[in-house]
Each structure stands twice: as C-alpha cells, then as structure tokens.
C-alpha cells in the first residue's frame, strides 16, 4: 500500500497494522480486498474483544450477513492463533452438524469453540445455549467500504452512497476492488453491479410505480415504501421502521406486477418465490420444503436491502381448519415460515416482505398479524380510467391519437391480465391480415362474436335492462350490465347491495331480481326458464328474512341464510307464505318496469350495439333519455294480463 497520503485521507485510509493489537503478522501480510473488508467489519463489530475468550476455552457465536463471510472470518480467528475450533452453520453442502457431545468434549478439554452462522438454528443446540459471548457482524456500510477502498489503494476514496452498493454481498463488493485499478474505477464497478442486481432481466421491462394505473391504495403504499427505503439508506430512519404487506384481490389484478414494480422503482433486488413451488421441487418432503424456505429468506437477507415476494401464500392452509390427518405436517411448515419471517423482521436489514393472495380469508391468523405482515392492501380490478391507462401502456405508442375511454367502458370488471390478453389478440388479428393494428382489431378482441341469434340476444338484453332500470329506480348503484354469456348465465347485472339490510332492503333486492322476467313479459314474451336463478335467489332472500334474520312474524332462527331455501320444500305453510309475497312483489315489479320502459329501451339498444354498459355510461343514458320508446314493442293490456296469469 502506498504511504503517500494527506491529512484528509486519515479518516479513510486504514493502516492494517492499526486493526489488530496482537496480530503483527496481519500488519505485514498484504490483504486481498475480501479479507480486508472482513477485517474492517470484524473490528467495527468489536471482534478483537472476543479473541481472549476463545484462547481461554470459551464458546462464542458469530452471526454473519451471509455464508460468504465464513472463510474470511475463520481466517481472522486462525491468524490470531486462538486454538479454537470453528463450526460453520451451513444450510446445504456442508459437513454434518457436530453433536452436542463433541462440543462438550472440546469445552472440557479447554478448547475454544466458535460457531459461525447466518442462523443460530444451524449450529449444535448446546453451542447455542452454552455460548459465553455473541458477536453480530453487520452488512458492510458505505463508510466501511469507502474505508476499505482507501486503505487498499492508499489513496483518498470518493464517497460511497447507499444506492451504490444496494443488494451487494461481501464477495461482490470485493470483486469490484481490483489491483492496478483506482478508487474511482472501483466505485464505478460497485454502481454497475448494484444496478444490474437491482434490475435483473426478469424485471427489466417492468414499469415503474409512477407508470402504473388502477391499483388503488396498494400503489400509494408502495410509493411511500420507496420513499422510506431511500430514507433508510440515507440513515434518516431505521430499516426496522419499514412495513411489510399482503396484497389481496381477484386474480389478474396486478399483485405480482406491483411487487416487481416496487423492486425496480426502489432500485433493490427482487427475490420472488411462489409458495406452491416449495412443494413441487425435489421430493416434497418436509425437510426439503423447510430448506427452500430457509434458502429464500437467506438470499433476501444476503441481498438486503431487497424485496422478498411470496406469491400465492394461501397455498399454506390455516392450521385452525387443517385436516386432522395432515395438521401436524402443515403446522411444521407454517411454523418454519413464521420463524423465518420473525428472524427477517428482527434483523432490520431492509428486507421488504411482501405476499400476495386471492383469498385473504384463507390465511392462518398468525401470518397476518402486525409484526409479520403489517398491512393488508386490496388490489381491485381497475376502474374505467385505470383500464384506459393500462390499455395505453400495452399499446406502446400504437394508436396514440385514439381516445381509449370508450374502449375501456366496454371492459368493466376487466383486470390488467385481461387487458394484456386483449392487446395480444388484437395484434394477432392485425398480423394475420398483414397490416398495422387498428381500432377494429381492439373492438374484435374486446367484443368477440356472439353465437346467439339476434332474437336470443335481444331477449337477454331486455331482461338485463329490466334488472338495471329497476335497480336504478330503487336507488341501487349499478356497476355494469352485460349480455355476454358468463358461465350458465346469458347476461349479468351487477349492483351494490347494503351490507346490513332491513326487510324493505331485502324486498327492494327481490324487485330487482323479478324485474328481468317482468321486462321480458312486457315485450310480449312468455315466462321462460331464463329467470330460474333470479326466482331461486328471490325465494331464498324472502325465506331468510322469515327464518334467519327475524324480519317476519317470529324471532326464531331456523336456518342459516344460505340454507333457508331448503326449508321451503319441507314446510308447505312457509312455501305458501313466500309464494304470496313473491306474487305481490312481482306485481310491483311489473308496475316499475312499465314506468321505466323508455330507460329499458335505451339500455337494450346500447347492449345490442356493444354488449356491455358500465356505470358511467348507464348514468349518461339516464341523463339523456326522453320521449316515448319506439324500439320496444309494448304489448296490449290484454297481453300483459295473460302474462300475469301464466306466472
């Protein structure tokens, strides 16, 4: 090392002879960057005070940021001639864990025993419980790395910032410091390595958080998290203040994308794992599963600050409801995960712990408590504006002049994954005809051909328009109306319902259910099987009001709300009571439908053109309607009366 320094360098250029009080051989032996970094960290953590303990035959635990540290720390212990035996706690590929009896023999022979590990659980139990001292070597800080660079080259080093080394472990930092180079070149290599690790190929094309749309409060939380990581790297706050979170919501809404975007926006490595994969790799034995849990958490800690993303975490069952035959096996897996989460959070190293599930209610209560996952963040399907923004992002500059809101209105309830599939289909249509993408391709992908006849489609459109018009008349908020086939349903009308209902609320819901059949009958159609599910739900609701909710003549709860309809088949008196009420409400539904016929016509014609109407467009239809409808062929009073008699 060069002896040519200035006073300004004194704080950064470390003469290696000052690092050890007793190791003169250390001072005269040139150190490679790996050993120099480890030696500086060893001294900074207070390692020299443990040397005398090792020489006196005591047991010492040394916790390191990763297994990469084992060899250089062991070399320091060996150079100090302590005579201590060093055990390395390795997750795989290491020697068999020594027995407690062997540890006892060494200590009784006066030999010092050192346990090196990233996790004390990997060491002999007796060594953990009988340790006389413990040393925790933290991950390398920017100041220590600057000190090592200056000491290695004997020159002043540029300032090293947290972003320069984000995600880098000891060996990667050492690889950037090379002989016949310079402090400036070393810093450049550190920055390059950190940038490559923070943005691996898997997330290179992931949009930044600022470019995402339609993700609700979850996106806002992620933006705050990015700011918190910046503050932690700058030393303004502790990494222990950074929250963890579970994203939940329907499939395809962008939960995984949000985790990837957070990692890219925060410029930290992403360690992503799918919980079901833990059971599919290797043999699936309990030990293999727990080993994979250990490995993924060790990787996240080694790369900290980092994002650790556990996708499909609902693959782990709630232990409270697990099958008795498998409860013990699952309890071991869940307990292992809880232990690793606790250790990861306690380490305060900057691992942002995220998870995703489609079924939040299926998770074990111990997983979702604060301290493990602090926040539960709903990721809903995007609204119309969000869908338009997602569509714009996927078009990547194509059709830049096109207003996408009308297209987005044709996709109510769609997710980001749906938009991806739509754009891919539209591009495929354009490629098959050898031309650029156009609006017609998107329309074709969003509104695929309907194989039903015009008459069938109109019948469904009138039915759904009846539901929607009466729902609006009764004060419900309608989210969307569609005549697309969905499962066994020919169409669907979605409207909000109160979380707590009075009898009047339940009867309003029944009127909406009956309005579809009433609208069809108003156009002269005979009652048919298309309203079977509506009648079933209407019957269930009115029965539940009587036998479940105490909203009838008595207060005895005879059934759960879900099982209420089964009583109708067994209780003739109850069936007669519900039938009388249904017929009365059906007459009201006919009156409502007749009074809303112009709105029903307008909704019907819009559905015939575009299959779907969202809440915003429905509101616009209501605002501009006027005059008598001429599209619906309204039947005579006699035809309507015949319809009532057929009920």
Report the sheet with the most strands, covering strand number, pairing sense and barrel closure. Answer: 5 strands, parallel
Q: How is the largest sheet built, in terms of strand order?
A: 6-7-8-5-9
Strand content: 5-15%
Name of the CATH class of the domain at 454-645: Mainly Alpha
The rounded distance between the terminal residues' Cα atoms is 99 Å
What is the CATH third-level topology name of the domain at 454-645?
Methane Monooxygenase Hydroxylase, Chain G, domain 1
Radius of gyration: 34 Å
Architecture per CATH nomenclature, i.e. the level-2 architecture of the domain at 454-645:
Up-down Bundle
Question: How many helix segments?
Answer: 27
Structural class: alpha/beta
Poorly predicted runs of 5 or more residues:
1-29, 627-647
Q: What overall geometry do the principal axes of the alpha carbons give?
A: elongated
**Strand element count:** 12
Compile the SSE list and pairings.
Blueprint: H1 24-28, H2 33-44, H3 51-55, E1 59-63, H4 70-79, E2 85-89, H5 100-108, E3 113-117, H6 125-130, E4 133-136, H7 142-153, H8 170-176, H9 183-198, H10 216-233, E5 245-248, H11 255-266, E6 270-274, H12 275-280, H13 286-302, E7 306-311, H14 327-347, E8 351-357, H15 365-368, E9 375-378, H16 384-395, H17 405-408, H18 416-432, H19 439-446, H20 454-473, E10 478-482, E11 492-495, H21 503-522, H22 532-547, H23 564-568, H24 572-595, H25 597-610, E12 612-614, H26 615-624, H27 637-645
Parallel strand pairs: 1-3, 1-4, 2-3, 5-8, 5-9, 6-7, 7-8
Antiparallel strand pairs: 10-11, 10-12
Helix pairs in contact: 2-4, 2-7, 2-8, 10-11, 13-14, 16-18, 18-19, 20-21, 20-25, 21-22, 21-24, 22-24
